[in-house]
Amino acid sequence: MSAPSPTQATDPKPTGGSPTSRQPQSGSGGNPIVSAVSYLGGQLRQIGLFIALIVIVLFFQITTNGITLAPINVSNLVVQNSYILILAIGMVMVIIAGHIDLSVGSVVAFTGAMAGVMITQWGLPWPLAVVLCLVLGALVGAWQGFWIAYFGIPAFIVTLAGMLAFRGAAQIALQSTQISSFPQGFRNIGSGFLPAFGTTGYEPLTLILGAVASIALIGTGLRGRATRRKYQLEDEPFLWFVTKLVFTVALVMYVGFLLASYSGTPIVLVILAVLVVVYSTVMKNSVFGRHVYAIGGNVHAAELSGVKTKRVTFLLFVNMGVISALAGIVFTSQLNLAASSAGTGFELDAIAAVFIGGAAVTGGIGTVTGAIIGGLIIGILNNGLSILGVGTEYQSLIKGLVLLAAVAFDVFNKRRAASSGK
Amino acid sequence: MANTILEMREITKTFPGVKALQDVTLEVERGQVHAICGENGAGKSTLMKVLSGVYPSGSFDGQILLDGQPVDFKNINDSEAAGVVIIHQELALSPFLSIAENIFLGNEQAKGGFIDWNKTNLDAAGLLARVGLRDNPITKVVDIGVGKQQLVEIAKALSKRVKILILDEPTAALNDDDSAHLLDLIKSLQGQGITSIIISHKLNEIKAIADKVTIIRDGKTIETLDMHADEVSEDRIIKGMVGRDLESRYPAHESTVGEELLRIEDWTVHHPLDATREIIHQAHLSVKAGEIVGIAGLMGAGRTELAMSVFGRSYGTGISGTVYKRGQEVDTSTVSKAIAAGIAYATEDRKKYGLNLIDDITRNVSGSALGKLANWGFVNRSEESTVAERFRKSMNIKAPTVAAVTGKLSGGNQQKVVLSKWMYADPDVLILDEPTRGIDVGAKYEIYTIINQLADAGKGVIVISSELPELLGICDRIYTLSEGRITADVPIAEATPEFLLKYMTLERESPVNERA
Question: Which chain B residues are closer than 8 Å to A280 by Cβ?
């Protein structure tokens, strides 16, 4: 049931005597089923994304005879897609602001190469090398952000240049060789697991983490709903709210259970979870995040509202650089290999994830969670098709069609909404 | 009237909710220069769009006769084929194509699908000679000045064997030399048998070249004056353009004027792309607490440019001058500094510059003062919603909740969101640029009431408006702006529409003392 919408009738006559006749508001209250249906109609995109994810998972679960949701495969799925998901978080912010970053794959290669050089050639301790790589990522982002924000060159051009330049830089750093055999501590970032307690079938720490995450989800969900109700902003039907919450919690617990029955919680999953929570909050609730949406929605209006649009754009690219460096570290550590060809095509996967996740090409629209779901859809497609033995040429073909279908669905949905005046 | 080339009979054009033209009649004689005058929004441009087929026949009532024959233009191609060519205020040239390519754009001189470059450039050179332009036809349009671009437009019209040339504010963007040359050209085209219809605000130009002038007011023909027979003065034209009754469309208000809040001195601004062109010249302006000050000026006088250059140098280059706040010099060189100095500017184009149309009321209202709602960089969203809800109620924004997307609100409600945004930022001085543009009468009244309340709360309000009755109805004092200069500063008691229009059209050459 939606909260009663406040109508004009409850207002004391506000601003002097206006000669206009006040039209009664078409209330959104009334029949709960009608309002629920109309609400879901407006949320088609979000629902569609979830349904698509479920359908794809079920499809592969059946066609692979249960391999898709086997504990070891779920664990691999998380680990092997982590760097794309990490990149998607930075990319969605850039795209919300109305820009793009084509250089992330090359930055992954460059920072991974530098990690290798620092650890094996310079003999730096790996934690220091990780920090230096993140700083390097920030510098790369600052370089690109400078040209985009302060010099006014379109991000497409600057990052296309970066895509070429940093690929070259990676080759120069590695002097056309590869670096392998990293210390175990470094390798754990990408492929390690949280220390396991107990020796029984299910690893207890993972189960505890799953339970904590579930409780946190329920808690924040309920609190957010209570606040919105208090300010009469809630238009989400209760049934839908519960369905969504139950589904999410079940998903988290199920994944936790699967991971616990294999080797426990991958360390990258922890990194990823922290990033998702932090960046979701930043984008939703921080002044910075608001400014990003404002710039993407209408850069002129943002500028004239006192938003320092250039500085925000610059910082966005610095952030993207740091995130690319993190992805580079995770990738290098996971493969135990620094190669100049690392990260080829990652930018395209990250961008596709963001658009499948519902971001608008024109900016101003998109969410971190959407990008993560988009990334998962791509990851599961990759994984499932590989298990089925479909060649990479068909994988690429199918991914392309999925991206087009997702955006076409968006456009169709917008037109429908526009024509029905919703 | 055997020599009538064009007759428009009882033209009525309605837009949803607005009657833009009502029974307008226009008769133009062959080979004359016919001027059309009227205030901003009187319906001049609409009438010309009806004539040139921009609004296809059927979308308006009435009849158009060309050489005595009724015509039905379905689009611009039809009207151009009949020899009626319109040159819009914003030139429609493709900047990176050559002059010759532009002249024949859409009418390419081709043989078998391939452009005949010799013919294109030769014919273009011939046409350029007719408009007195000596540039090479292969020069790119971007490399010639606005004045020459205007001539290229006319050459393009000539290439279409124009019989009636319509010029919408042709000299608005031109400097004095270019304007003079253009007016000479129109005269000489008259000698070649081309009839011109010219829309202009510049009464001295009309006096110089027009044979007849038709005055339009509120979408109706008021009168047609014969410039040769009646010895028509500029004052006579102004009288026709105004003379509208001031009904009780404005809430009664007594202002209590206090100390001076804002003073701008010697404010000079240059065009952002052409640093040699002065847009604002040594403007002086002040506003006191509780005072509503109007800025009256015609389109292109520099009203918005003045306001935006003060507000964080959002417009222009080579800006010089000083801004004083309560007698202290303040820095307004960026938007955030201007906001910090207590200045707000609500734009004339709320869709393009005022709102994030894909976001909701809440986040638009909080947009310019998020810092007030934030702790450690994070927004207190509950408080934000409370604030937005408070404004929704007090401003009477008609939307079910503050989560409504602003792009779907009506113009009046969008304007209230913009005003809410600036009221929440709590500035001392608000500059409102065309605060009631595109808003229905009822919502206008509400906006005026809000402006009065702001003044009563001790704010200084500057209202920029094209509508003189509006300024006369709500302001305490009015500045007139003409060609980037403040030409008069009158208290409301002494202001009349005739007086304002006289100073709004005051030419640069004839300096007068500030207070007439």
Answer: none
